[in-house]
């Protein structure tokens, strides 16, 4: 971190500032030019709040030279992280396909979809039991009963389960759930992130609607700094000026995050496109960009789905998608 002092900063201002900075345990190197005095901070600057320094009267500007996230940072962990989920692995060249309905609606529905996606080659079953809906009048999910149905579907198919948790107080219901999903709207629910950091369960962390890459990685850092290294990132579309699609899938997030972090990256073609006909091309684009997998919504009767009907694939379409995904994934991972 580099701190540039104002021209009018006095010797006393400078000494006070250096003492303040040294309290964080960093070394301060002073270099005095004709026009400007610059302080170079060496050591762990993660605990220093840039905006507090910027508000100091003697400070002209503050520049970070290192990213504020450490545990999620590829610089300190060059190897890709591989997250073990049941009998499958996310990252490390594996193709992860989390498929299933937006919401668990009934025993018949979740079992039918689970068997269909398993037969087509999905590696995990997704399904929402606790639903974060934009409207309080929309279907809110089956809650703990929905989790029981997911457990039953897992027992029948062997597919590990991915399902969303919204409230740290619900953790008691999720102790045996394979992957806990944090939705886009909860990406900065820091109490939830901290509680999930105290477990060792894999977490699927979705990017917020208007979150930067750094904000996403800082949210991952919340989980990891509490001791849980099992974080999987998910790009699920961001809010832009475009209204044709539900959100705009940021495909660039995949190669950029790949560079910044060692964590696995999944894309969600369903909530980004919001339309069934976009799910296949967006899925393929994500894998082509180097994503470790997708999380996709599949329903046996989308026309009557209780949530997100227009974007859910029929099992037959999912089967076709699986074949295409494998082809693109193989092409990306082929030796040049
Ligand atoms: Mn959905």
TrEMBL record:
Which InterPro entries does its entry note? Answer: Aldolase_TIM, Class-I_DAHP_synthase, DAHP1/KDSA, DAHP_snth_FXD, DAHP_syn_2
Its signal peptide is none
- Per the UniProt record, which EC number(s) apply here? 2.5.1.54
State the UniProt keywords alphabetically. Transferase
Which residue intervals define the domain DAHP synthetase I/KDSA in the entry?
87-326
Q: What class of enzyme is it?
A: transferase
Give the DAHP synthase ferredoxin-like domain ranges.
1-66
> Which is one GO molecular function term here?
aldehyde-lyase activity
Any Pfam family matching the protein: DAHP_snth_FXD
Biological process, per Gene Ontology: aromatic amino acid family biosynthetic process
Q: Where are the transmembrane segments?
A: none
Q: Which domain of life is it from?
A: Bacteria
> What is the protein name stated in its UniProt record?
3-deoxy-D-arabinoheptulosonate-7-phosphate synthase
Organism per entry? Slackia heliotrinireducens (strain ATCC 29202 / DSM 20476 / NCTC 11029 / RHS 1)
């Amino acid at each position: 971190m580099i701190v540039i002092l104002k021209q009018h900063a006095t010797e006393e201002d400078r000494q006070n500032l250096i003492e303040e900075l040294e309290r964080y345990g960093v070394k301060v190197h002073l270099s005095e030019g004709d026009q400007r005095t610059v302080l170079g901070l060496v050591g762990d600057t993660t605990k220093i709040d840039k905006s507090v320094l910027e508000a100091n009267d003697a400070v002209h500007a503050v520049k970070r030279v290192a990213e504020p996230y450490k545990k999620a940072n590829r610089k300190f962990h060059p190897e890709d992280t591989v997250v073990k989920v049941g009998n499958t692995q996310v990252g490390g060249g594996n193709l992860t396909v989390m498929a299933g309905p937006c919401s668990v609606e009934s025993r018949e529905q979740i079992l039918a979809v689970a068997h269909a996606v398993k037969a087509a080659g999905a590696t995990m079953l997704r399904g929402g039991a606790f639903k974060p809906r934009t409207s309080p009048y929309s279907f809110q999910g089956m809650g703990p009963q929905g989790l029981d149905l997911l457990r039953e579907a897992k027992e029948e198919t062997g597919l590990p389960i991915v399902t969303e948790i919204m409230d740290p107080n619900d953790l008691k219901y999720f102790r045996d759930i394979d992957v806990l999903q944090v939705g886009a709207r909860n990406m900065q629910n820091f109490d939830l992130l901290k509680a999930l950091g105290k477990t060792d369960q894999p977490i699927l962390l979705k990017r917020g609607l208007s979150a930067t890459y750094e904000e996403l990685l800082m949210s991952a850092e919340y989980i990891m700094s509490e001791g849980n290294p099992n974080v999987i990132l998910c790009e699920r579309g961001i809010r832009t000026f475009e209204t044709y699609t539900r959100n705009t899938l940021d495909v660039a997030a995949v190669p950029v995050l790949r560079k910044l972090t060692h964590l696995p990256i999944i894309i969600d073609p369903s909530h980004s496109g919001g339309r069934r006909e976009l799910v296949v091309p967006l899925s393929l684009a994500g894998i082509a960009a180097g994503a470790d997998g997708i999380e996709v919504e599949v329903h046996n009767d989308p026309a009557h789905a209780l949530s997100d009907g227009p974007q859910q694939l029929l099992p037959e379409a999912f089967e076709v998608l699986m074949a295409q995904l494998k082809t693109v994934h193989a092409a990306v991972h082929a030796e040049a």
